[in-house]
């Protein structure tokens, strides 16, 4: 059954915050994250006749992550690196210790391979279970579990067992 | 037991830039108002039609041209200044190219 505008906007309200948070840790640019979010929802709207209302949130994640992945590919070709202010802006306010911890965490996230980063961010922000994440990414559940497990191990190792 | 807590739990929860929903609604409205753009399909259809007409005009055998050539050849064997070509027939020769026509003047086999 096709979706209508009310359902699309309702999904946007549910997904905007978590998806924005995940996208920001991939793209490190607020405006670009919002553009990707909007493009993802416009794509869903263009395919509204084929979009299942029950899966609209997961499809928005899928579309947005695909767009972010394309964006990252372009950046890699241009040799782009995130500006320091992109990390400092969210590094924990005035508390120097919190700022240092956030900076280390962000640096560790940037070292993760893209496939692991996506799984970690979805697990952290989307509220989806392993099965839903697997469906959204189009990979088997075991792959999601494995990527998440290895990503957590690496992060803990890089962060010194914190 | 292994500690499977996510180190990312410490990540700050960021607020997206304000006005996102309004921007999305505007984009949806623009998208709906634009509707289906017929210009490109129409231009494509017109171009196809032109190509079809052109191809048909070029490939079609021209009957009037055939008749004209036949008349010219017949005129060539007609008596000129008292000289008459007698006992000749015009025979079309088959060619692969429809644009090329070849005719042969054949002598009358009945006469020696």
UniProtKB/TrEMBL annotation, chain A:
InterPro entries given in the database record: RNA_pol_sigma-70-like, RNA_pol_sigma-70_dom, RNA_pol_sigma70_r2, RNA_pol_sigma70_r4_t2, RNA_pol_sigma_r2, RNA_pol_sigma_r3/r4-like, Tscrpt_reg_LuxR_C, WH-like_DNA-bd_sf
Annotated transmembrane regions: none
CDD domains recorded: Sigma70_r4
Keyword entries, A-Z: Sigma factor, Transcription, Transcription regulation
Entry superkingdom: Bacteria
Chain ranges of the HTH luxR-type domain: 127-154
Entry's family note: Belongs to the sigma-70 factor family. ECF subfamily.
Protein name per its UniProtKB record: Sigma-70 family RNA polymerase sigma factor
């Amino acid at each position: 059954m096709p979706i209508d505008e009310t359902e699309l906007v309702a999904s946007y309200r549910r997904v905007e915050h978590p998806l924005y948070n995940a996208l920001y840790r991939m793209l490190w640019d607020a405006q670009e994250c919002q553009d990707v979010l909007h493009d993802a929802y416009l794509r869903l709207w263009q395919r509204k006749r084929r979009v299942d209302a029950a899966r609209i949130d997961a499809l928005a994640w899928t579309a947005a992550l695909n767009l972010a992945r394309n964006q990252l590919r372009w950046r890699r070709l241009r040799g782009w690196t995130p500006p320091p202010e992109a990390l400092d802006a969210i590094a924990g306010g005035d508390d120097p210790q919190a700022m240092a911890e956030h900076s280390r965490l962000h640096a560790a996230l940037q070292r993760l391979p893209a496939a692991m980063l996506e799984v970690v961010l979805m697990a952290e922000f989307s509220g989806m279970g392993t099965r839903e994440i697997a469906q959204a990414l189009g990979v088997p559940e075991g792959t999601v579990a494995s990527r998440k497990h290895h990503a957590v191990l690496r992060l803990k190792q890089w962060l010194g067992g914190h | 037991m292994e500690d499977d807590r996510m180190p990312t739990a410490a990540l700050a929860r960021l607020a997206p830039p304000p006005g996102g929903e309004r921007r999305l609604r505007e984009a949806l409205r623009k998208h709906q108002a634009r509707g289906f753009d017929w210009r490109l399909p129409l231009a494509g259809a017109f171009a196809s039609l032109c190509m079809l007409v052109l191809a048909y005009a070029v490939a079609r055998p021209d009957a009037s041209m055939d008749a004209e050539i036949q008349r010219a050849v017949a005129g060539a064997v007609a008596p000129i200044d008292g000289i008459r070509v007698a006992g000749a027939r015009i025979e079309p020769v088959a060619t692969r190219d429809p644009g090329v026509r070849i005719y042969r003047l054949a002598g009358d086999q009945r006469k020696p």
